[in-house]
Amino acid sequence: MSVKDITIIGGGPAGLYAAFYAGMRDLDVRIVETQKTLGGKINFYPEKLVWDVGGIPATTGANLIDQMVEQGRAFNPEVILDQKISRFEKTADSLFASESESGNRFLSKRIIVATGGGIFNPKKLPLQYDVKFEEKNLHYNIYRLNAFKGKKIVIVGGGNTAVDWANNLVEIADEVHLVHRNDKFKAHEFNYRKLIESAVTVHTHSLVSEIIPDQTGSFITSIKIRNDQTDEDTILDLDELVVNIGFDNDLNFHHDPALNFQLKDDYYIEGSAKAQTAVEGVYAIGDILEFDGKVRLIAGAYNDAANAVNQIKQSLDPSADEKAKVSSHNEVFDEKNKEMKERYYL
Q1: Total domain count for the chain?
Q2: CA distance 302 to 286
Q3: 3-state secondary structure the chain
Q4: Residue after which a domain boundary falls, among 245, 266, 284
Q5: Which domain-ending residue is among 211, 245, 279?
Q6: Does one domain contain both 70 and 151?
Q7: β-bridge pairing 289-290 and 268-270
Q8: Which positions in this protein are listed as binding FAD (predicted)?
Q9: Same domain, 198 and 254
């Protein structure tokens, strides 16, 4: 395993921008991401419009992820997916060894923690079913609304995300059913009012009791739900089954007392406005970082990332400039500018 200047733990907005900015400072970077895709929590709302990233008109979460990933990969960082970091330690030669749950070790001179609001995994239906359905028509997230156009959709859940999906899908689907375990919806008032005024068929006090596949067992054709007030069973035919019944939030490695992080509210890493933490050589950026005046926006995460990288650059090379040159005057972009001009203007 090669030794990198920085291991960035987390591949969301903060981590991706840190990788980009580190490239501007000629630092060698590795991103280690718990999930199988980059983009962080924006993957939970790919069809929602994001308005609050400076200089970018309103765009979908999916488009923003594509743009962030393209930028984050601009200087060819090593990207390791589907690896959850469980601990790190300082080696005898003053390197950091970050270790994943699967036993892989990643060596670097410095670490940036960019794990956001936590490691969230969607709760699965508490039923036995073939996992290949998740590759067919069982969804725990919605990436492209148009993929559901003209179809029969059943949504399971009663939170704001489930209600929001129902409100959006009813406009393009053939029919939409919403199944919820009780009659209390944890949705924003506006979304709930829109739901009850819509053409969505709502089944309250109901739980999914059975998943019914086609004859070959390839995909789901219907589900059976049971009303816990009447004990009545209902079969709902479907083309697509969408489930949003909450998320499991795994504890991050930074909770380990042996690492000596200072935590606020037993979660956020307390640090400085320059992203320094109580652990020398380890920096925190994005939502996981807490300091007086912290701004929890994507724009704020970018600022954290630049500060962390600048601190690292000077710690590794005390003669280095305090910060990178802006991109319009930075020589590292000469070749990339030439490529862009050839792509768009020639």
Answers
A1: 2
A2: 8
A3: CCCEEEEEECCCHHHHHHHHHHHHCCCCEEEECCCCCCCHHHHHCCCCEECCCCCCCCEEHHHHHHHHHHHHCCCCCEEECCCCEEEEEECCCCCEEEEECCCCEEEEEEEEECCCCCEEEECCCCCCCCHHHHHCCEECCCCCHHHHCCCEEEEECCEHHHHHHHHHHCCCCCEEEEECCCCCCECCHHHHHHHHCCCCEEECCEEEEEEEECCCCCCEEEEEEEECCCCCEEEEECCEEEECCCEEEECCHHHCHHHCCCEECCCEEEECCCCEECCCCEEECHHHEECCCCCCCHHHHHHHHHHHHHHHHHHHCCCCCCCCCCHHHCHHHHHHHHHHHHHHCC
A4: 245
A5: 245
A6: no
A7: parallel
A8: 33, 41, 45, 85, 120, 287, 328
A9: no
A 10 A CB-CB count for 232 gives 10
For 309, the domain range is 4-120+248-344
- For residues 113 and 254, state if they share a domain: yes
The whole-number pLDDT of residue 119 equals: 65
Query: Is the Cβ–Cβ distance between 302 and 311 less than 8 Å?
Result: no
Kindly state the tokens that stand for 218.
């390839």
277 and 235 belong to one structural domain: no
CA separation for the pair 199, 166 (Å, rounded)? 10
Q: Which residues are annotated as a binding site?
A: 33, 41, 45, 85, 120, 287, 328
The annotation places the binding site for FAD at 33, 41, 45, 85, 120, 287, 328
Residue 327 has φ and ψ, to the nearest 5°, of: -60, -30
**Rounded Cα distance, 317 and 4, in Å:** 15
Are 144 and 174 within one domain? yes
Residues 101 and 128 in one domain: no
Report the alpha-carbon distance of residue 309 to residue 316 in Å, rounded: 11
Enter the pTM of the model: 0.78
Chunk the chain into consecutive blocks of 10 residues (it has 346) and report each block's average pLDDT, rounded to whole numbers.
Answer: 94 97 97 94 85 90 94 97 94 95 96 85 89 93 88 96 94 97 92 96 97 95 96 97 86 82 91 96 96 91 97 97 88 84 72
